[in-house]
Amino acid sequence: KQEVTQIPAALSVPEGENLVLNCSFTDSAIYNLQWFRQDPGKGLTSLLLIQSSQREQTSGRLNASLDKSSGRSTLYIAASQPGDSATYLCAVKNQGGKLIFGQGTELSVKP
Amino acid sequence: DAEITQSPRHKITETGRQVTLACHQTWNHNNMFWYRQDLGHGLRLIHYSYGVQDTNKGEVSDGYSVSRSNTEDLPLTLESAASSQTSVYFCASSEGLADYYEQYFGPGTRLTVT
Percent of chain A beyond pLDDT 90? Predict the structure, then answer.
């Protein structure tokens, strides 16, 4: 059974720092991995999708990497801002399009 | 713009009542999914559908049912609401199942069962 773990569960950093969020999964037979952002009381916003054949994806200050063989993905946020404060979720897509989610990392960026 | 909507956004109901949560998407996606989000468990799959008249059970389907009579809608029904079903419910849709397709999520419905 696929399990997805995110470490740390919570992270507080001062504005301007570069930071890394971690996601690990137990079964390397994934179709893709998505990183989502969730603001309090809101839905999920897709940030980046990495296909199983890809190693990384970039969007603005965000860079996500994928190492299927080791079952790991990282989300790198450059020059963090208070507006980046949110919960970040990773999810792996298995056969049939079903997503398996980690429990998220709650990020707080202090001005 | 195409979107996915859920209604109601908030619902309080009593134990034993039947409750239906609506999900409507305007992307014309074949694939639709229902998840619930709970502290300590993250998001877990309840039911999903690959097209009209198709429904499948997910990881936590007990006490829930869905029906798919058209492409746009996948209502989620709680047959007899229980306090353990207090949660935030998210609907999602996807154009396809290949590795390059994203899932898009609705804003969620917060359900409280008293």
Answer: 91
Q: Is the pLDDT of residue A74 over 90?
A: yes
pLDDT of res. B2: 66
Buried b (16+ CB within 10 A) or exposed e, B82-108: eeebbbbbbbbbbeeeebebbbbbbbb
> Measured between alpha carbons, how far is B48 from A32 in angstroms, rounded to an integer?
18
Please provide the average confidence, as pLDDT, over all residues in chain B.
95
Does B33 sit within 8 Å of A98, measured CB to CB? Answer: yes
CB-count exposure of residue A89 (10 Å: 0-12, 13-18, 19+): buried
Minimum Cα–Cα distance from B42: chain A residue: A103
Nearest residue of B to residue A50 by CA position? B100
Contact B102, B83 (CB under 8 A): no
Q: Which of A42, A51, A101 minimises the CB distance to B100?
A: A51
Q: Is the pLDDT of residue B1 over 80?
A: no
What is the distance in angstroms between the Cα of A16 and the nearest Cα belonging to chain B?
29
Name the amino acid, one letter, at A109. V
Does the pLDDT of residue A110 top 70, yes or no?
yes
Neighbours of B49 (CB within 10 A): 21
